Amino acid sequence: MLSAAPKVRDASVTREKLLEAALASFSTRGFDASSTRQIEELAGVKRGLISYHFGSKLALWEQAVGNVMEKAGKELGLAMDCAQQMRGVARLRFFVRAYVQFCAQYPEVNRLMIQEGMRDDARLKWLVVQHVSPWYANVSRIFDEACALGVAPAMDRLNFYYVLTGAATLIFSNALEAQQLAGVDTRSKEQVARHADMLANLLFSEMKP
């Protein structure tokens, strides 16, 4: 019995390494260009362990994507709960700031969605149904609230969703480009806070009624 515990821990560590490597590969190379050999090499594990732990590359993709999306859902859900305690424009601005903070912490999500959003296939449908649609519904409620308050930008829900998403994510998912352009680490605490304030001001200015 005592010898089983280290094996369980080793298996868990191996799975986590594979999931982290898979997310990194799928979000940068895409699903088709990411081979199991490359992912195993990136994870620093033996060949064949993807098949052993997950069964297939697709199953690994679903687990890796599901994990990060579940983390996203929990953290954004907590932000939504906190926002419930606020009213008016302050609530909307808090939501925008929380979303920017999340995007800075998980730039892989936007990279992954760009990769998957270019193909109308089963993986995209799974992503939309399981994870994207619920979040779109949350953003839509924020937009409807802004409309009711008379502070919504002059656009419809879908435009608002992609304006918010693009503005909140791109500077972090393209952090290396930003570093080359301006010599700035956009994922530093100070830069994240600055970008969050900028986007909150752009979408829901405190000067609005």
Describe the protein's topology:
Layout: H1 4-28, H2 36-43, H3 49-54, H4 57-83, H5 88-105, H6 107-116, H7 122-149, H8 157-173, H9 175-182, H10 189-203
Helix pairs in contact: 1-2, 1-4, 1-6, 4-5, 5-7, 5-8, 5-10, 6-8, 7-8
Low-confidence spans:
none
Mean pLDDT: 90
Number of strands: 0
- Secondary structure category: mainly alpha
CATH class: Mainly Alpha
Distance between the termini: 66 Å
In DSSP terms (H or I, runs of 4 or more residues), the helix count works out at 10
Give a structural overview:
The chain has a single domain, classed as Tetracycline Repressor, domain 2 (Orthogonal Bundle), CATH 1.10.357. The mean pLDDT is 90. The protein has ten helices and no strands. By secondary structure, it is mainly α. The protein is elongated and about 55 Å long.
List keywords for this structure.
78% helix; Tetracycline Repressor, domain 2; mainly alpha; 209 residues; 10 helices
Outline of the structure:
With 209 residues, the chain is mostly helical. The protein has helices spanning 4-28, 36-43, 49-54, 57-83, 88-105, 107-116, 122-149, 157-173, 175-182, 189-203.
